[in-house]
Each structure stands twice: as C-alpha cells, then as structure tokens.
Design a protein that fits this description.
UDP N-Acetylglucosamine Acyltransferase, domain 1; 2 domains; 9-stranded mixed beta sheet; 6-stranded mixed beta sheet; 6 helices; 27 strands
C-alpha cells in the first residue's frame, strides 16, 4: 500500500493543484518511481489511498497496468492518517504481510531483502530504518543489538540503544490494523508504541540505499540535485523540451514542453512542464512551476516561482 493521502502542507504552493506524490521528480511523477521500485521487489497488487487532489494521482497511475501492477484506490473523504488509512483499506490488504510505503519520499532500498528479513523474524511488524543524523528533525527509533524496537519518538517511554530514523517503509501483518479504532489514527502513536508497551517484539532493520526526504520546496530541489550527482547525470531534459543553440543547462531538470531560448542559462534548478526561459535569461537554484515564463534577460536565483507569484526557497 502506498500512502498518498497527505495534504502536502509543507510543499505548498507546489501542492495546490497536485498531490505531493504526483509532483515531478527527475521529470516523472514521484509515485511512478515508487511503483517501479515495488514492481522490482515482486509486488503485483497495490492499494493507494487518496484524499488531497486525488485526480492528480489517478491520472499518472491509472489502473497500474503500464507498471506491471494491479492498482486499486481507497478514497478518504476525511484524511485518516498513517494508521487510519490502512485500516480503512483493510479488506483490500490480504495475505500474511503487507508492505506499506509513504508516497511522499523516494528510496532505492532492496525491498526483497526487507520482506525476507520480516518473514524470517516472525515479528508482526518490521520497520526499515536508517542512521539518524538529526534526532531533533526525525523522531528517534531506538533498538537493541538484535534489532528489537524499544522506543519510537520517545514512546512508550525513552530508551537507550541504537538510534535510527524511520523511513516510512514497513512490513506488517494486516491483522494488526484491527487493533486500531475506526477513523483517524497514527501508526506509530496508536499501533506500534502500544505494542512495544505490551512487550510485543517489533523489528527494526537498517537498510542500505538512498533515501530522499522531499519535505518542502528547498528539500525538493536539493534532493533532485543530489540524485543527479549520484546517478552521474549532468542534466535531465525531457524529449519534448527544446534547448536552443547557445543555451546552457547544467545540473538541472527540464520538464516536458519547456523552451530554453538562445543564450539562456539554467543551473541547479528544476523546471516543470511548459516553462519558457527567454533569450539571455539566467535561472539558478530555482524551482519553476508549470507554465511560468521567465522574460528575456531576467535573472532569477534561489526562488520558487509559480504563475501566482514568487518567494525565496
């Protein structure tokens, strides 16, 4: 199940017309990257929950066939949270275990390995963890030497041990969802922390691979610049984009239907679809939303630019 019902508040104004999982990342909707990662892990059936701008997700995913998947949707008229969303979709989640993935981040973990660790452990739930560089920004998950979870964001009580962050990727027995009440709930606060308090063994495993937190516009830009470097790419330019002779595009992502005029410079930026950059203009360290026009000779640096306005990143 991909959790895609969030409001995307930290990413506004970019999420005013699209759900966060539908925002372009390296030229393609974020959720498409996630679905391809699930397919590589052997997943065939996917449930996606929706609330904010649901049509934006449906348009880029459809029934999932082009990704080799069967995709079904669980619509939430009222947002239900990381616990309530899966509980509402319980009848669609069958089998001995369910892989839950947050739809607002990007990762390249070995999910087959994670699923196998979960199966071998016998634990009712397994959380994918990474080293926690900043416990003040990411709630700490504390485990013992064997990986047993002792505390999650200080719940049910603070503990000492190995400190990690929860990536939002998890495997659980779907029967656990029946412990949650109908309506909104949080998986950590209302499910996992009470299980730990009862002495139930939950497993936390450190995974290897990249994980990108696309929290707000500045992180959205920084993460894509990092992705380009890690992939060894100088730039990503969609096929239908036009870069005129004499224009320069470096360390940037240029979306479908964009036009970069002669002598223009686009550097360390992300341009959505149908952006026009006029002759001799300079765009540096910016996120430029769909349909924006940068005038000839204009200089734009460190800005989030939409058709309704601009603000510093």
């Amino acid at each position: 199940m991909v959790l895609a019902a969030g409001l995307g508040l930290r990413m506004r104004p970019l999420t005013e017309k699209r759900a966060k999982p539908a925002l372009p990342v390296l030229g393609r909707p974020l959720i498409q990257h996630t679905l391809e990662r699930l397919r590589l892990a052997g997943v065939r059936d996917v449930v996606i929950n929706l609330h904010h701008k649901p049509g934006s997700v449906r348009r880029v995913v459809g029934d999932g066939r082009r990704f080799g998947l069967r995709v079904r949707y669980s619509h939430e008229p009222r947002i239900l949270g990381t616990g309530g969303g899966p509980r509402k979709a319980r009848r669609l989640l069958r089998g001995p275990s369910v892989l839950l993935v947050n739809g607002d981040m990007l990762f390249d973990f070995d999910l087959r390995w994670l699923l196998e660790r979960h199966r071998r452990s016998g634990a009712p739930a397994t959380l994918a963890l990474l080293p926690n560089p900043d416990p003040s920004a990411y709630g700490a998950v504390v485990t013992d030497a064997a990986g047993r979870i002792l505390s999650l964001a200080g719940r049910p009580r603070p503990a000492r041990g190995r400190v990690s962050l929860f990536t939002g990727v998890q495997v659980l027995d779907p029967a656990l969802l029946e412990r949650l009440p109908p309506g909104a709930s949080d998986s950590v606060r209302d499910l996992y922390a009470p299980l730990v308090a009862e002495g139930v063994r939950l497993l936390g495993v450190r995974v290897r691979g990249a994980w990108y937190d696309l929290g707000g516009p500045a992180q959205y830009l920084a993460s894509q610049r990092l992705m380009l470097r890690r992939l060894g790419l100088a730039r990503v330019v969609e096929r239908s984009a036009r870069v005129e002779p004499g224009a320069r595009v470096t360390a940037a992502v240029v979306g479908a239907g964009c036009w970069i005029a002669r002598g223009a410079r686009v550097e360390a930026s992300v341009l959505w679809e149908k952006v026009a950059v006029g002759a001799g203009a300079s765009v540096k360290r910016c996120v430029i939303a769909e349909g924006v026009r940068i005038r000839a000779g204009e200089r734009v640096e460190g800005q989030l630019v939409t058709r309704s306005g601009r603000r510093p990143l």
